[in-house]
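## tool: complex_structure
## caller: assistant
## args:
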Amino acid sequence: MPPLRLDPDRLLPSDTATRDIARAIHAATEAAPIVSPHGHVDARLLAEDVPFTDPTSLLISPDHYVTRLLHADGVPLDTLGVGEPLGDETARRRAWRALCSRWEMLAGTVVRTWLEHQLVELFGVEDVPNAGNADDSYDRIAARLAGDDFRPRALWERFGIDVLATTDDPCDDLTAHAVLDADPTWTGRVVPTFRPDRYLEPVRADWPGLVQRIGTAADVDTSTYDGFVVALETRRRFFIDHGATATDHSHADLESEPLSHADAFRIHADALRGEATAAEMVAYRRHLFAEMARMSCDDGLVMMVHPGIVRNHHRPTFERFGQDTGHDLPRRIDFVEPLRPLLERYGTHPGFHLVLFTVDPTAWAREIAPLAGFYPSVYAGVPWWFGDSPAGMERFWDGIVDQIGFTRTSGFIDDTRAYLSIPTRHDVARRIEAGVLARLVVAGRIDVEEATRIAGWLVGVQPRAVFKL
Amino acid sequence: MPPLRLDPDRLLPSDTATRDIARAIHAATEAAPIVSPHGHVDARLLAEDVPFTDPTSLLISPDHYVTRLLHADGVPLDTLGVGEPLGDETARRRAWRALCSRWEMLAGTVVRTWLEHQLVELFGVEDVPNAGNADDSYDRIAARLAGDDFRPRALWERFGIDVLATTDDPCDDLTAHAVLDADPTWTGRVVPTFRPDRYLEPVRADWPGLVQRIGTAADVDTSTYDGFVVALETRRRFFIDHGATATDHSHADLESEPLSHADAFRIHADALRGEATAAEMVAYRRHLFAEMARMSCDDGLVMMVHPGIVRNHHRPTFERFGQDTGHDLPRRIDFVEPLRPLLERYGTHPGFHLVLFTVDPTAWAREIAPLAGFYPSVYAGVPWWFGDSPAGMERFWDGIVDQIGFTRTSGFIDDTRAYLSIPTRHDVARRIEAGVLARLVVAGRIDVEEATRIAGWLVGVQPRAVFKL
Amino acid sequence: MPPLRLDPDRLLPSDTATRDIARAIHAATEAAPIVSPHGHVDARLLAEDVPFTDPTSLLISPDHYVTRLLHADGVPLDTLGVGEPLGDETARRRAWRALCSRWEMLAGTVVRTWLEHQLVELFGVEDVPNAGNADDSYDRIAARLAGDDFRPRALWERFGIDVLATTDDPCDDLTAHAVLDADPTWTGRVVPTFRPDRYLEPVRADWPGLVQRIGTAADVDTSTYDGFVVALETRRRFFIDHGATATDHSHADLESEPLSHADAFRIHADALRGEATAAEMVAYRRHLFAEMARMSCDDGLVMMVHPGIVRNHHRPTFERFGQDTGHDLPRRIDFVEPLRPLLERYGTHPGFHLVLFTVDPTAWAREIAPLAGFYPSVYAGVPWWFGDSPAGMERFWDGIVDQIGFTRTSGFIDDTRAYLSIPTRHDVARRIEAGVLARLVVAGRIDVEEATRIAGWLVGVQPRAVFKL
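## result:
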């Protein structure tokens, strides 16, 4: 049985000279604290500090990166604890074995890279997983998880996390964040992020209820457009008061043409009554998207956008298992023309930050870098979902560095729901960045001292500055 | 005159350490049998086993990869035997000289890589081709072709072909396949593929005739929609009875919204009478495309699709020389949204296999890998037409491996009309795959034993499993 | 303070074996004369041979590649001399300091690569720029600029320019070109290029005036379509008489469907009276675009196109500073289908040359190479704007070589407004080309002699042939 090990030079460039330089650059960031400006870890995890229970419900069930690949290989989602938790340990062990027995199927994927890192570094698993040793590794991991040093707050220290942003509903009372703030034994920093998508989508059947809900949360009458705007502003302020520095947006497109006040006022009322046309509702969403930029200019929240996702592609899976179950899929997306109305108004506003993420890798060289190379507000977001892998990151840097260098980029975001995968995701990014910088050194474009400085601020100064952390 | 030679390390990665590993991986697949699940060789070639006659009508005239490049360099297609065969040996020698004298023009192209391999390995040509030595190489090749060891069946043995799929009209009587099956002296496996495109395109002027034709072939009245469906099912069954395992589809887009039975019934009848609107005919084609998936769920035929081709771009050339004469050209194509109706219905059907090819390389990372990483039915088809080259293959693997590894890919298909180019095309693919795997080894992501295993099943187990061979 | 130096191996491949070969290939082109078939240097610069004044108005103010990046980093355009020249030396020194103090911000960009080359090779600047040494480098450069050996004609000799194409309005009297032609002390070759874009855009408010203007220039009544065509032909002839070999086109798309003569005639008249519809005006522009191809078949002018630019994206900047101020931005663009009508008519016309540039890198592999691999008229234009960098050039070659080799490409164009950046831009291209060729050698696809030959004609024979220079 071959041993499971982490190559100390993993993911660094292959030729010896470049690898030596990359290794030196990487040494300077390897142990740097983690800044995580965007992700989906629940703040309650840290507020409550409840121990994790078992490998399956920790590493498989909640991680759609893992479950989707197993599903593609024929494993039914319900046997993996998707939708509802697995009922007993037998089922959990079966799920764990399903993963372990497919280790070779995962060869080459970043999912295996992440899991391997966690198995070795956190759990001391010594053998390459397979069906035969699945129970052993299950037991070993479960035993570790029982220790106090594996509770979420202890792992925070171990991971060296400096600041972590969560993603939250505008009506969330942010209790967990408040609990952490008020806890004298807790010294970490966990900030919320304002994620208003569904409140900006009049086309949703539940939109009238959501409008009322945010009205209640903000204590404002949202039956009129003006009230709705005040409610959104109020809730943003509430988030700011709880430490938020950013908002997060994902719609079908980036069109951003504002409406006149009269039209917005009218459509708001019509949409609440179910009398707006489909075109009006789309136009209103685009208006509200531009309004978010206007509010960011006023209140300083950084605006993150990551468009181009087709949500819940496979209806039967959605109906049975709900959302975020592995079949949100990318499509082509334009940036330059749709964002023109927004950027014309706010693109040079002092202090406005607009971070553009994409699931369409062709946008980096063609649209995002050109935008970030002119507008002081625009930052090129690093690879996200489907692109957050070694090859994806290299495509990103290859597409943008020549045009805009490093200072117009966001710094790494891990975007993860899987708390334990945070260190490995940052590890992958730092290694790839070391390689990118080393190649520039070998190409005679920067020297190794400058490369090392850049690597350092890419993991600290830069994300703090871009996300105002 | 420089010698023509094949570098034993050709197409392997450049840096020494990675190349050494790639060479070792490649050694394990270099001599493996050839599985060819998709191509355009005519089964009669093997059924009749007629000797090839001369270099030009073997290597130039039928290969639009070659003729299009010569045409771009100013050589008229009629002097190359496109459209109709060249009348005499003088003309054939002139065409051969046209190719040889443009050897340097072909520098860097995969066409030269393929030709070089054939000239050296099959024909023992010793000098780099040029105008001066064209007659010599013509003579040498013609002499070899006269030998019994160069007849199609002998080459099959020499090439180590294990199974070859042809591409056939649904009304084809598959006589050639039957002849091979019935021949006790023939031990190879040649299977037909059901290619119904034109029967599914009501917009074609000849569609009513085609509908009648398939009715005759299936002995079914196809004047109604229901009869037409039965005819298609009947012919698929006929193909299955002759060894077919797959169907092959190429339309302008991948839209797949089914119609109600009533609408399909009505449009079928209207279209036969020439009374359907253009929009109805397109909607009906999309319905029939979804029907093909439905039938695949029923009868098990693997469904291959390769959309996004603009056919017969240069009308004057089409009018003079016919189709497949080098001016079918790619365009942008979407996968995720158009395939949603089809995948919603059949995407998780047990045993359904949908292999997605593309001529738009941007689709691999953005759409095809994400689809294949969720749907058990979807496989990422390897680079095809315009992408079936070293750089094209590296783009493919670079775009998909991090997301889905190797098991969600189709295995290599050569897609060739040029029988003699089969070995070199597989040789190129195996070398690139060895390099891709070697880079993963050097990056510490897999070890060399696993890489070698993967290389092995990529050329055997995988295409057999995906195409049910 | 680290010294500023140029690595003699800069931009060559990283692994030792490939780099050694690339170095040998590059040695053969390093000192070759410069052929510059497309750019934006003003012919008056050479006709008048006026000395340059200071670093800022030479290297910053007119170069939107530089000013846009400084703007993105928060430097107001008016402090950089954009729009109107900086009033005094204090302001110019401040602008120069703004650049020098952002040297690290430019790390990794091709802008820094270009500037570095100029600072070292032309001005002997010895230290890496920063705020502290900005005045020193300003003084050093200003002193050099005062010398006769830094006047434009002297630099022409020093740069080794063989031929330079300018870009000119169809009504330009080409006096500067005539002055150069008539000057017995001037032995260089500066040819004009016919750039008719705005005359072909009836949608512009100033179009009726432009039509009248070209009528005056051509001494033809352009109130009718027929007269307008004659005027365009007359001005093309005037350009040819002054040495022009090419025309240059950039519209929103490449649609090229011709109108009937009757429709063109009618829309021309209606558009002049402001009575044409928006759709008619677009259709007429597309017709005129096809007409340009028709005229090229008649008069032999090479047709260059570079579509897909969204002009003046940020209206407030445009209103204050005018055009070409750094916010023209790329978007997606199709080639295969829009060009079909044009290529159907003229694509195989003997002597017609159509050079296709793109700001959408996805078009190279998908559409431009496939077109250039069939149509004798079509050449793949090298990376242009936003792509004219090391990574951009590698994407280009990676996207096209396997399909069409080298002979179907345009040869390098620098496309620059910055006269002093011509040598460094060609230097970058030659180094990348040497690397591309070296990789083919290491991959066993060409040998080093052939690679060296190809490198040679890529910088001389090829652009001369494609642009008929």
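## assistant note: Chain A has a mean pLDDT of 97. Chain A touches chain C through 48 residues (CB under 8 Å). Handing back to user.
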